[in-house]
Amino acid sequence: MNPTSLRLAGKHALLTGAGGGIGLAVAQAYLQQGARCTVVDLSAKPSAELQALLTAHPEALHYVPADITRMDEIEALLASAEGRFGPVQVLFNNAAVFDMAPLLESDEAMYDKLFAVNVKGMFFVMQKVLARMVAQGTRGSVINMSSQAGRRGEALVSHYCATKAAVISYTQSAALAMAPHQIRVNAISPGVIDTPMWAHVDGLFAKYEGLPIGEKKKRVGLAVPLGYMGHPEDICGPAVFLASEESSYVTAQTLNVDGGSVMS
Question: Are 91 and 129 spatial neighbours (Cβ–Cβ below 8 Å)?
Fold first, then answer.
């Protein structure tokens, strides 16, 4: 393939939550399209899958362990990213955690955990990347990861739904704030995606809904209009599009990638 035809050639992309699932799949897609990628996850050492990708792309991939709920670690990861590949032109803001409980049993610890990562961490990674883009005159692209859970409430998933609704709201506000700088801010709202996290999610639904293990996963897949759960690779096309110049007139949008579950 001609390098000049690659859709992200020469761009430096920063991806959080890239140890597996959607983040890892999008990192692979960005590399295939010519980007250099700084990938971030909580673990001190990269996952086996991410290590394999690092081994295959030593000149184009950089791993930084970081806890995005800590401001000092956000600053350190950005310094490391810029030190390796220069200014960040694309942010794929993906790191998130999930938990659930009946509304009347949901405690402060669960609330704090979900909002610390899914809202506080998401916002301040975005804010600090945007500040650098403005200072450097970069016409960049930020892609925040929401969820179909952010489009509606769910009885057992109140805190997670609220965090993902906040992602959509912050995306819209940031897009308007950054429009004078020609920096685009959008979000992707996946539906049910078959990632390793679903074993945890399925187990929680089994606990609270009295279902056999695997039953909730089966049901939610069948409930999708297209009839099946998505895969991490289904997010890659939209993620590349929003990172590329093909979406140069798209900002403040949240793109549903959910097999038809949400219509807007």
Answer: yes
Across residues 67-83, what is the average pLDDT?
98
Residues 21/34, Cβ–Cβ less than 8 Å? no
Q: What pLDDT sits at residue 3? A: 58
Closest to 70 (Cα-Cα) out of 24, 31, 125: 125
Strands 36-41 and 61-65: parallel
Active site residue 170: no
Selected catalytic residue, list 30, 63, 111, 160: 160
Distances (CA, A) of 125 to 77, 118, 171, 206: 10, 11, 13, 34
Cβ neighbours of residue 147 closer than 8 Å, sequence gap 6 or more? 160, 164, 167, 189, 190
Residue among 86, 194, 186 nearest 138 (CA): 86
Q: Are 1 and 29 in contact (CB under 8 A)?
A: no
Residues 185 and 171 sit within 8 Å (Cβ to Cβ): yes
pLDDT at 264: 85
Provide the token pair at 108.
């402060």
